[in-house]
């Protein structure tokens, strides 16, 4: 920034930002702004009905070349439609414009650290980095070029407003970046194209560390429920939760409830790292050059990445199951190395992959059910409780509910997998399935499901709280 320009920087305003500040920044009078908003409403109200519905909004957004697949029309309708009658009249539209322009000016001021009423590339880059997003110079230049309509190298508030006015989600730096990355189109003649930049987390290793620690704490806190679930899964005779708890206590006391947790925690980091790396590799393959893979693509990429990660760490999972299900000898916990060696010598290296097939078969259905339920619950929340994106606690609740539903649907595969892992005899997935069905009926496939479901709420809550605390301590917010 030039020194002369810095000397012209106005003093920082004190007090809450008001619409008067917005008018000053836009160099508009109240009457001029009223006329502009009225004309924008009339642009959407092409049928001259005096109100907007989702068809009007979608048609208007399409005219502005915002792809319908991003569902901005539906979200914009929800945000504007304060009386929930499925229509947006001018007053509702006006209230949205007032709130949105004020919100955009507040974040504009936050990014404009020099307080010279424009955003330069360095300021935009710093704001993105603080939000955990690192972009290359070429991508930053494309961002600036798209928003900077007068091509003077900086972004004024009017340009900022025009770029984001119809973006119905909360105006955070991350949301704004992804709005540009995913939706806003770069003009090349008559054909718009999606920007080819792909966001990169500047502190990916820290994010992995935060997620790994959150997973470790969560798994340790819910280890007793996990041990109880596994023991119940392998039992072929009718046995309740309370007798099983007494049995575990009788054999190993308190530590018995944490048997196998060391392995469970150890596999968090490699599993997450492998899954993340595989997902990043699969995204361009599935989505092509633009890096956009959509919901189905994310489901496929996530499922395949999960399969790769699970296959890589599966031997650890099998040893954990054996450790949790074998009987203590004279009150002593089985030795991990001795147990691993026995599996290798007596059953061969292939034994470490017993039950892999049912495990892999459950990945895509689980992810699909989880995602569908999560999106449905979020839509329900937006429709009946929130005007905009639900907050983190609501999203956490949606995630716990959808996760529990997904886990319940694929639970029979999990039971078959656990039984194959625990059995030293050679058995196939179909043999184990038929054996369970004939001997125990359908109920046999749901042994241990209640401890599994009881894990969901504390596990998700602890993971969320620890992850957020780690993000704060590692300066990832």
Automatic annotation (TrEMBL):
Cellular component annotations (GO), alphabetically ordered: mitochondrial inner membrane
Domain EF-hand span(s) in chain numbering: 68-103, 135-170
Keyword Protein biosynthesis: no
Solcar repeat segments: 202-285, 293-380, 390-473
Alphabetical keyword list: Calcium, Membrane, Metal-binding, Mitochondrion, Mitochondrion inner membrane, Repeat, Transmembrane, Transmembrane helix, Transport
Cross-referenced PROSITE patterns: EF_HAND_1 (PS00018), EF_HAND_2 (PS50222), SOLCAR (PS50920)
Descriptive protein name: EF-hand domain-containing protein
Organism of provenance: Brassica campestris
């Amino acid at each position: 920034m030039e020194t002369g320009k810095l000397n012209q920087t106005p003093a920082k305003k004190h007090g809450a930002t008001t619409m008067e500040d917005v008018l000053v920044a836009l160099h508009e009078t109240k009457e001029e702004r009223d006329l502009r908003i009225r004309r924008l409403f009339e642009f959407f109200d092409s049928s001259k009905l005096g109100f907007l519905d989702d068809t009007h909004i979608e048609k208007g957004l399409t005219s502005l070349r915002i792809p319908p697949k991003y569902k901005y029309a539906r979200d914009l309708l929800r945000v504007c439609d304060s009386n929930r009658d499925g229509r947006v009249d001018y007053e509702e539209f006006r209230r949205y414009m007032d709130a949105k322009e004020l919100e955009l000016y507040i974040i504009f001021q936050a990014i404009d650290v020099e307080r010279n009423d424009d955003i330069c590339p360095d300021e935009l880059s710093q704001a993105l980095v603080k939000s955990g997003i690192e972009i290359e110079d070429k991508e930053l230049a494309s961002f600036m070029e798209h928003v900077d309509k007068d091509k003077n190298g900086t972004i004024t508030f009017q340009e900022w407003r025009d770029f984001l006015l119809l973006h119905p989600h909360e105006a955070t730096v991350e949301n704004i970046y992804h709005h540009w990355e995913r939706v806003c189109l770069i003009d090349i003649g008559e054909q718009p194209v999606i920007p080819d930049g792909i966001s990169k987390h500047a502190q990916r290793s820290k994010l992995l560390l935060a997620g790994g620690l959150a997973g470790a704490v969560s798994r340790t806190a819910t280890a007793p429920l996990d041990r109880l679930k596994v023991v119940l899964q392998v039992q072929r005779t009718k046995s309740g939760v309370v007798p099983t708890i007494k049995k575990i206590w009788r054999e190993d006391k308190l530590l018995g409830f944490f048997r196998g947790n060391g392995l469970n925690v150890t596999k968090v980091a490699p599993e997450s790292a492998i899954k993340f790396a595989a997902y990043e590799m699969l995204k361009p393959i599935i989505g092509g050059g633009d890096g956009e893979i959509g919901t189905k693509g994310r489901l496929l990429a996530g499922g395949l990445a999960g399969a790769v990660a699970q296959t890589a760490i599966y031997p650890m999972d099998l040893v954990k199951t054996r450790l949790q299900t074998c009987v203590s000898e004279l009150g002593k916990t089985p030795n991990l190395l001795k147990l691993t060696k026995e599996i290798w010598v007596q059953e061969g290296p292939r034994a470490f992959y017993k039950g892999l097939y049912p495990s892999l078969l459950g990945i895509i259905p689980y992810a699909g059910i989880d995602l569908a339920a999560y999106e449905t619950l979020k839509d329900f929340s937006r429709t009946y409780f929130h005007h905009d994106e639900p907050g983190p606690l609501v999203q956490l609740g949606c995630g716990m509910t959808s996760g529990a539903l997904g886990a319940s649907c694929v639970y029979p595969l999990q039971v078959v997998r656990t039984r194959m892992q625990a059995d030293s005899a050679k058995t196939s997935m179909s043999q184990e399935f038929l054996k369970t069905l004939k001997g125990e009926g359908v109920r046999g496939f749901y042994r241990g499901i209640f401890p599994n479901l009881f894990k969901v709420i504390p596990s998700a809550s602890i993971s969320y709280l620890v992850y957020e605390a780690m993000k704060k301590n590692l300066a990832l917010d």
